[in-house]
Amino acid sequence: MALTPDDISFALEMTQILHEPDRRIDTFGTTNFHFTLLTEPMDEIGQVRIREGRMEAQRPAIIRPEGYEDLLFEGFGEQADAFAQWFRENGNLKFLSYGFNFAKQSLSESQAHEPIEQVRDRVLEDFRIAGDPSRALLVGMDDTWEISLLKFTMDLIGQSLDINLFDFQRRGLL
User: What is the pLDDT confidence band of residue 68, given thresholds at 50, 70 and 90?
Assistant: First the structure.
């Protein structure tokens, strides 16, 4: 399915980040996050698709103006390519000036036969009990679920940017 810029914008607007990891993206290391992404298939009433996996954010390369070429999404499908193109046209240049490589790994998928609110509440309770600070819970659209995952990733970059830039300045790299 070829995504239009409107499809991407709609998917971004519809994505809900219900639980964020307690940490941000490390400046000089690799950061791992575990995600659970809930979607409702359009043709299956009362069903919830549960996708779980791990995102790995690898440390940024050197800072340089042409950082967009360093926006790499390993393990993603064509939605990531469409998103990267959309971001080049609509994103904040400063936002990615030092490049990232993100990998989606260990993806599993299951279905629940109950309302999404019940699944959401159960997952949030599981997070609370487990106490894992690297967990994220997202709700998105089924046919553009990778865009939801990319939104979550870009939001983490934005939240980490000031700390990352401070670390670069402190080490004399800026």
Answer: very low
Cα of 56 vs its chain's centroid, Å: 10
Between the alpha carbon of residue 129 and those of residues 51, 98, 136, the distances in Å are 20, 37, 14
Residues 137-165: tens digit of each pLDDT: 999 999 999 999 888 877 877 666 665 55
Joined tokens for residue 113:
């036969």
The residues facing 54 across adjacent strands are 34, 105
Return all residues near 109 (Cβ < 8 A) that are at least 6 apart. Answer: 49, 50, 51, 52
